Amino acid sequence: MEEVLSSKVRLRIMDSVSVRPRTLGELSDLTGISVQGVLRHLKKLSELGLVEEKRISRLAPKARIVYAARSARIRDYSTGGYTVVKSTEEAEVGGETAKTRDLERAAGDLLILRRRAKEEARRLGRIIDEAADEQAYLAAAIRSLPLSQSEKLVLEVVLTEDTLEDAARVLSKYYGLDDRRSIESVLNKARAVVSK
C-alpha cells in the first residue's frame, strides 16, 4: 500500500484498473503522463502483484492488451488534499453464473454506494478543513497571549494533545518538563489572561 500511496500516478492507475480493465492509452490519458511513464508505473504495480496484463481478442480493433487489478482492489475516494483509500479483495461468485437480474441489482447498488462514499469523502474533507482552520486559529491565539515562549509551548502541547496525561507525557519525554505544577501554573496563567 505504501508503494501505491507514495505516487499519485500509481494510486490513480490502481483506482482506474480496480473499476475495470484499462488500455495503456486510456491510462495515459487518465494520468496525464506518457505511455512510457505509465508502463514504468505498471511494471512496479505488477512487481507488487497488484496489476496484471491481459490479452484480449480482436474484438476491439485498437486494443490487444488491457491492464486489470488482481484480486486486491484499491479505490481512491480522496477529496481536496486529503487521501482516503480503501483496499478490498475481489469477491468470489460461487457455483453457477449469476443471473442478469442479480448483476443489474449489484451494479445499481455499487453506483449508489460509490456516490455515498464520494459524498462521505467530501464531508470528511470539510471536517478536516474545519479542524485545520480551528488548529490555525488556536495557534494564532496562543501566539498572541502575553506569555513567554516556553509557556506558549507548554500551552500549545496541552491544548493539542488528546488528554492532559498525554500532554504531560509529551512534555516530559520531549521537553524534559516533569513538574506537573509547572504545567498547572502555565494553565492558570493562561486562564487569567483569557478571562480579563
Overall geometry comes to elongated
Low-pLDDT stretches are none
- Structural class computed from helices and strand pairing: mainly alpha
Count every beta strand, where a strand is a DSSP E run of 2 or more residues: 4
What share of residues is helical?
55-70%
Biggest sheet strand line-up: 1-2
Mean pLDDT: 79
Under the CATH scheme, the architecture of the largest domain is Orthogonal Bundle
Continuous helix count: 8
Q: Biggest sheet, open or closed, and with what strands and sense?
A: 2 strands, antiparallel
> What is the top-level CATH class of the largest domain?
Mainly Alpha
H and E string: HHHHEEEEHHHH
Beta fraction? 5-15%
- Give the terminus-to-terminus CA distance: 51 Å
CATH homologous superfamily title of the largest domain: Winged helix-like DNA-binding domain superfamily/Winged helix DNA-binding domain
What is the count of structural domains? Answer: 3
Radius of gyration: 26 Å
CATH topology of the largest domain: Arc Repressor Mutant, subunit A
Overview of the structural elements:
The protein has 196 residues and is mainly alpha-helical. It has three domains: 88 residues, Winged helix-like DNA-binding domain superfamily/Winged helix DNA-binding domain (Arc Repressor Mutant, subunit A); 37 residues; 51 residues. Helices cover 62% and strands 10% of the residues. The protein has eight helices and four strands; from the N terminus they run H-H-H-H-E-E-E-E-H-H-H-H. Helix 5 packs antiparallel against helix 6. The two termini are 51 Å apart.
